[in-house]
């Protein structure tokens, strides 16, 4: 019996409660094996994507099929990370989901810039099991459309 294909998602966030909720919700929504990789900030995500430092082993740290991070990252903005990622030829085709805080309106200029840079989806960061379920369905739609 062959093993089902595995998809890889790079989650960039320093909120462990969110990371656990997001991973649990996504796993509960699909039968496809999902490998989650975590970076705590934009600089760590860049190291991961470049395969630098502790992320040099692509067997253990594969290039992701999807990158998910929020507008407000520690150390750099999500828009800065998105711009960097889309300038790298080897990463341009990786879909990116950009999250924003559920209790804040996204600035029109941020939405415009993210769209211009090639974001795949802008989504509200989930805060409850119900919003996590809706969130996971939208994430998986982007992941499987890639």
Concise description?
This protein has 5 helices and 5 strands, in the order E-H-E-H-E-H-E-H-E-H. With 146 residues, the chain is an alpha/beta fold. Strands 2-1-3-4-5 form a 5-stranded parallel sheet, with helices on both faces.
Word description of this protein:
- It is a single chain.
- The chain has 146 residues and is an alpha/beta fold.
- The protein has one domain: Rossmann fold (3-Layer(aba) Sandwich), CATH 3.40.50.2300.
- The chain has five helices and five strands.
- A five-stranded parallel beta sheet has the order 2-1-3-4-5, with helices on both faces.
- α4 links the parallel β4 and β5.
The proportion of residues forming helix, as a percent range, comes to 40-55%
Q: Could you tell me the number of beta strands? A: 5
Secondary-structure class: alpha/beta
- Strand portion, in percent? 15-25%
CATH topology: Rossmann fold
CATH class: Alpha Beta
The span between the termini is 26 Å
**Number of helices in the DSSP assignment:** 5
Report on the biggest sheet. 5 strands, parallel
Mean pLDDT across the residues is: 90
CATH architecture: 3-Layer(aba) Sandwich
Helices and strands in order, then pairings?
Layout: E1 6-12, H1 16-29, E2 33-39, H2 42-50, E3 66-70, H3 78-87, E4 96-100, H4 108-117, E5 121-124, H5 129-145
Parallel strand pairs: 1-2, 1-3, 3-4, 4-5
Helix pairs in contact: 1-5, 3-4
What are the key terms here?
5 strands; 5-stranded parallel sheet; 146 residues; 19% strand; globular; alpha/beta; Rossmann fold; single chain
